[in-house]
Design goal:
Number of helices: 5
Number of strands: 0
Number of domains: 1
Radius of gyration: 19 Å
Structural class: mainly alpha
Strand content: under 5%
Shape: elongated
Distance between the termini: 26 Å
Helix content: over 70%
Order of helices and strands: HHHHH
């Protein structure tokens, strides 16, 4: 097999240049974090603060943790989703005047612990889904369908 035939048989390397704009990823994660905080805390002010905090964290973390030369990192996306939710929750607690504490009594603690089993996987799944979309867009642009 000649070198030219061997090169044509080799698949194109994945460049992972981030086809999904980080602003889109940040906006999607911020909206989800705000909705989840609003549902948990029933406060519009807390949801607005959660939106801003989540948007900033996701915007800064996406290119650092997710975009890789080999394609979008799913582990980095999961970490971005968790960090986004953490920032949103802390800021929501600060805006409610609880010194960053979202939990103020035993009943709220039970509700929060139950909700975390649902809320954290939702945020992580959303971030991983966005990373997979980024991978798919990168592959489509390179013609690897």
């Amino acid at each position: 097999m000649s070198q030219q035939q061997q090169q044509s048989a080799t698949p194109a390397p994945r460049t992972g240049n981030g086809k999904l704009p980080r602003g889109v990823a940040a906006l999607a994660l911020a909206v989800l974090a705000a909705v989840l905080c609003w549902q948990l805390l029933a406060s519009t002010l807390a949801a607005a603060g959660a939106f801003v905090a989540a948007a900033v964290v996701a915007f800064l973390a996406w290119p650092v943790l997710v975009i890789r030369p080999a394609g979008a990192s799913l582990g980095g996306a999961a970490a971005t989703g968790a960090l986004t939710l953490l920032a949103a929750t802390v800021v929501a607690g600060l805006l409610l005047g609880r010194g960053g504490a979202v939990v103020v009594d035993h009943d709220t603690l039970i509700l929060l612990l139950f909700s975390l089993w649902i809320v954290i996987p939702v945020m992580v799944a959303a971030a991983v889904g966005l990373a997979l979309l980024d991978r798919r867009l990168s592959e489509r642009d390179r013609g690897l369908d």
